[in-house]
Here is the input.
Amino acid sequence: MNKKLNEQSLPEILTNPKKERSSHDVAIYNQIFDAILSQRLLPGTKLTEEELAQIFKVSRTIVRRALLRLSQDCIVDIKPNRGASVACPTVKQAKEIIQARRIIEAEIIREVVKVIDQEQIDALRKLVGKEKINVEHHIRSSGIRLSGDFHLELAKVSKNTTLTKFIRELIPQTSLVIARYEKPGYANCSHSEHYELIEIIARGDAHSAVLLMDKHLLHIEDKLDLSEYNQLVDLKTLFSAVG
Amino acid sequence: MNKKLNEQSLPEILTNPKKERSSHDVAIYNQIFDAILSQRLLPGTKLTEEELAQIFKVSRTIVRRALLRLSQDCIVDIKPNRGASVACPTVKQAKEIIQARRIIEAEIIREVVKVIDQEQIDALRKLVGKEKINVEHHIRSSGIRLSGDFHLELAKVSKNTTLTKFIRELIPQTSLVIARYEKPGYANCSHSEHYELIEIIARGDAHSAVLLMDKHLLHIEDKLDLSEYNQLVDLKTLFSAVG
DNA sequence: AATAAAATAATTGTATACAATAATAAATAC
DNA sequence: GTATTTATTATTGTATACAATTATTTTATT
Here is the structure.
């Protein structure tokens, strides 16, 4: 496993500004979360408790807590007595995740257009600027993460913490879906659509914004090969059909 | 605390039919989940680890795992070094929860109308029948739970596990909202709206079904007193405004 | 040599001991 | 008698020991 998991998307200190020192497992959770989000940890990777405990220099107690959190987010899969591994979404789940995002982010956009102010627009532009630079410099991990951050920031602007929580879960799940099902040879150019989206939001055109967001999310699905034969099947099922 | 937490909404054995014996904390999680869902555990109730450990005859390790799960569902609130208590949603959260349900359940209904079969329609009718009997016999807890089960079963019919997971979280949150903010003197008669909904779904009228579901959820909000002065405020803030 | 059985090793699951922190009660000062 | 400090108790946080389970290797059998 990559031991350099030190880039973080949302430093815990920012998410929880009121200096309520939260427990150590949150830091580990954040690092693994971010590694999955930025595709440094790929679907299926085994996550051994003892190994993680040594890397982060804590006891298994803490690691188990972090893994349980991640499994509740559906980005880590825990099988009883058989341990944890990075989740490997099925074709069906992949479609569901995109569909869920479409309806939730449509609502978020409607809310965002209503409440966004100039400062927030500038912040979003800055974020997409960063995203563009990273993608152009082929800093793949950071580019992917910043793309996710854009959607998360939009959700936060909407001020609906419940929907934001759902989107916060769906973003790393989308990362796993892309890692697993992306058609080869596609360049990531989501930042251009992000730019467009900001301009439409800034104009206050709710209807167009919703449509563009939906198009943007469908565009993600277009880049995937979600055909049945691409589905991972367990070997028994596979060879039972041999003629 | 009520020690008779033995009625269960969704026995773990049914949720996880493939006899993968899951760990003991899931059973405790389910019991507390159900106690919150059916309003036997009310917002703000302290959940002491040692106390729960004795009730369920397990170590604190297991209790802590169950509590962490519940806190990720936003129905238990864990404060560092200060323990867990049943969550107490704010007015803002209450509104968000209903709003989230409106958009997600609208989508679920659209899907349900497309895919539902006669067997599933009968099962839903049976469920609402039970709900009616329990409400009429003033078996409050069971009535509330069965009402939640109706929405959960609808979500399952839609076959979208991602949206179902979200609804599964929003249902007990709604229970907490109702427990906290319900206007006095309202009879629970959601089962009649549930009956209506089934008939419209059975007719295959997607548009009307979506409208009725939305009306039904708004009806829940109507029964609440979500005015600002009803908001729980900490004492310091309260008395700092005294003239 | 291929298969099955047994032994060993690795990994996860749970309880418990102890440390750290917070809440409460008692003691002291004014 | 009230306020502040100190001591005590209760509760949560973490590491670790050991049990239970699964994975791997070794040995035995054909």
